[in-house]
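Researcher: Please predict.
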Amino acid sequence: MVSTLPDDRPLTVNDLEGLPDDGARYELIWGELYVSPTPNTRHQRASSRLLVAIDGFLARNNAGDVFHAPLHVQFDRHNLVQPDLVVVGAEKCEIIHDTGVVGAPDLCIEILTPGRRNFDFIKKYVLYARYGVPEYWVVDAERERIAVHVRVTSRYEPQESDDGVARSVIFPGLEFDPRGIARPPVRHHG
């Protein structure tokens, strides 16, 4: 079955229901459809390591939930994305639904994909700021860096770190050292 999407108007979340369930990550930003490529192993390692660290922190502090893609975050009928990681604090648990998150999570994390840096950084940066996501991390697994951005009024301000460690402002005590974030494990033969 081939789905035909309207080309005479911005797409809505309802338009996505007709798309094939082919494992692709479909996202809507300002009513425009984007398809994310399958993550490579570097991306997957970074995502897994962040997930484990954040989940451990949240569990120890009874501070909320972390989810990983694919998971829908819907801001309105024209904006539905699948961040690599999404953190919802305990006091906002009502935005978590069986089908995904409806509303602004406390923290969205995007891991840059080669060839899609502008999409991951610029388009989502503007979207998340507009819809009130308090904190946005941009992970560059290749360069082993995490840029932390905190929303001030309606825009993000970068949070600098002298030692390279990413520290959350929204979740005090949550920090992650990105050195080695996507390196394969050392294998010992013997």
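Model: The chain has three helices and 14 strands.
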